[in-house]
Amino acid sequence: MDRPLRAYAAVTAAYWAFMLSDGALRMLVLLHFNALGFSPVALAWLFLLYEIAGIVTNLAAGWIAARFGLASTLYGGLALQIAALVALANLDPGWSLSASVVFVMAVQGVSGVAKDLAKMSAKSAVKLLAPAGDGALFRWVAALTGSKNAVKGVGFFLGAALLAVAGFGAAVWGMAAVLALILIAVTAFLPPGLPAGKKGTKFAAVWSRDPRVNRLSLARMFLFGARDVWFVVGIPVYFGTVLSDGTPAGNRAAFFLIGGFMAAWIIGYGLVQALAPKILHGAAANGARAAARWAGALVPIPFALAAAALAAGGPAPWLTAVLVAGLLLFGVVFALNSSLHSWLILAFAGTGRVTMDVGFYYSANAAGRLLGTLLSGLSYQAGGLPLCLATAGLMALASALAMRPLARIAAA
After folding, report:
1. Better-predicted residue by pLDDT, 264 or 244
2. Residues near 18 by Cβ (< 8 Å), separated by ≥ 6?
3. Residue 18: is its pLDDT beyond 50?
4. How far, in Å, CA of 263 to CA of 247, rounded?
5. Among the CATH numbers 1.10.10.10, 1.20.1250.20, 1.10.1040.10, 1.20.1730.10, which is that of 3-410?
6. 340: part of which helix (H) or strand (E)?
7. Is the pTM of this model over 0.90?
8. Cα–Cα distance between 217 and 220 in angstroms, integer?
9. Which of 29, 40, 41, 410 could pair covalently with 288 via S-S, beta carbons 3.0-4.6 A apart?
């Protein structure tokens, strides 16, 4: 195996380990505190600092990697995630609701910094290490992104299963120990191949002046907002209401079922992303135009699900079945959108400033997740599932409108 491919494989393996813990931690926090009686808005607050941290971190991480090298941001991401897990394991169940919310928000903020350091490192490495020509960049991006999301989906189920079997504290300590071993292994065996930093890099350079990067970043913000509006709070809380009778045994059974669905959705999303170059075999000729078409295809799905939820008037078996089918369809179309975006940002990014363009783009991604997370709790509490899903539809529409001029800009 040549040196660039070895470096790419090592970065990918570290990213997989990180995303496994990230998915598990999200389900642990969501299900544990939902079982403790936290409201939808309180649950959303637990993840807000995680997303706010992502906005700032992606901008700073692009500069840090350009200044100090990609390996430094990868190691830093893994180390911070371990610190966040150790802190969370020390949560005192005797604390008040407000103290618990503030503490978990702070820990999730550290985890958000960690995630985006690791993500920016892995995605930037693809641009720098992928062979030129013959659609190789699209294939390498699809393989990394798709496999990452499949692994994160396994993490969703793992987190729910660990919560049901081992309990909150033991699950968090176990993940911290495994991730510490991964960090030691990556530090010891990561081969050369990632670029070193440049001392003269200025922080002001993180702001993109490329209209293609800016337009794509705007569309990305609304795209991930559309997903997280229903994904973070709305659907898990609805399924918890439907699947649990409120007893400890009922809660444990619901943990497995909710974790299983969320895991299946993320794994399926990742598989579609990995297959995107084959599904979208003609997209390489005009990726911006294909991305605009697929953005429009996403819009009707959440609106149709919102109409179904409104017609049902409350939890119902037929509605649950429609939601499962509709959200799986949403996942397929969303995955193709996301895969096209991930390829386009690397295609648009300048070789000399790839970490900064990628960091700027994923800062917009984090802004969308923040917006979606906040609206998830607010919309569900204000208008239940119909308003939550309708809000997702409005976000998808905004993403499609942002994408429409991109084909013209990219061709100019």
Report:
1. 264
2. 77, 78, 81, 114, 115, 118, 179, 182
3. yes
4. 24
5. 1.20.1250.20
6. helix 317-348
7. no
8. 5
9. 410
